[in-house]
Amino acid sequence: MVSIDVLGGTFLDIYIIKEQEDIHKSKVYMFPGGSGLIVAIGLAKQGYNVRLISNVGNDFVGDYIIKKLIEYGVDVDYVQRINKPTSIFVTLNEKPIAIDRQVLDCDLFVPDNKSDYLFITTEINKNVVDSDIFSFYNKVFFDIGPRSNIIANNHKKHNNVIYIGNEEECKGLPFTCDVVKLGIKGAKWDDIQVGGNKKKAKYTIGMGDVFDVALVDGILKNEEKVLILEKAVKTAESVSDYLGAFNKIINS
Fold first, then answer.
1. What's the burial of 156, exposed, middle or buried (CB within 10 Å: 0-12/13-18/19+)?
2. Which residues lie below 8 Å from residue 55, measured CB to CB, with a gap of 6+?
3. What percent of the chain has pLDDT over 70?
4. Residue 110: closest CA among 10, 37, 7
5. CA within 20 to 30 Å of 5's CA: 19, 79, 84, 120, which one?
6. Dist. CA 199–CA 228, nearest whole Å
7. What single string gives the DSSP state of each residue in 70-102?
8. 184 secondary structure, DSSP code
9. How far apart are CA 38 and CA 250, in angstroms?
10. For residue 214, which phi and psi values (nearest 5 degrees)?
11. 3-state secondary structure of 31
12. What value, to the nearest 5°, has the Cα angle with vertex 165 and ends 36 and 201?
């Protein structure tokens, strides 16, 4: 079975839905989150051996997140417990209003015995993004969101890396993204583009993570580019009615 390391963030996602002026009629939901966690669960669901490399706090939220990762078959041996609160991501009607990422800025416990493949995001410590970690894997899938601005201007584009991002994230890079998410317009990979359904999603947060899982799965199965893109776009669109990245990935 193919093994893949996922190097990314873990959060407690808090979604506040406030449709009326009366705050007593608000709805608050909490789920495990972070692109690292969501992609790790998604790939584990596809049958891959997945190790998540990340940090959580030494608190009850960290306990909860690790329990959920284990429940979905993710190897948590390299999820490090830090003596700080677990990172929290808060949205109001799907607009991010607060992010506490303390533990994610700490050093990571990266294994010496690396897998053949790596999925990495910019949710983690900037020093890791700027390191030579890419050279230790046969192939790397690098989703440059959500902090593409931390990628150094002198970052060398690695031949073994597939760079993934949305249009806005890819604009400010010193190199061209390989795969670009185009929202309701679909996605493109080099000179291949597939269309989307052009319908506004009810809940957008997490659709990019679901897209990434389908993309990586298709690549690892050696499918044709156009088929991979079509599947990734349709899979992301199919879960747009689910609130939260966690609910999207477990229902994809």
1. exposed
2. 10, 79, 80, 81, 82, 103, 104, 106, 108
3. 100
4. 7
5. 84
6. 21
7. HHTT-B-TTEEEESSPPPEEEEETTEEEEEE-G
8. G
9. 9
10. -65, -40
11. strand
12. 85
Query: Could you report the per-residue pLDDT of 38-51, keeping only the tens digit for each?
Result: 999 999 999 999 99
Q: Cα–Cα distance between 207 and 248 in angstroms, integer?
A: 7
Count of positions (residues) in the chain: 252
Mean pLDDT, rounded, for 57-77: 98
pTM: 0.96
Alpha helices, H only, 46-178: 60-71, 126-129, 167-171
Half-sphere exposure of 26 (CA within 13 A, CB side): 14
Q: Tell me the pLDDT tens digit for each residue of 201-234.
A: 999 999 999 999 999 999 999 999 999 999 999 9
Amino acid residing at 34: G
Residue identified by tokens 């303390």 is: 102
Q: Which H or E element spans position 231?
A: helix 225-238
Strands 3-7 and 49-57: parallel
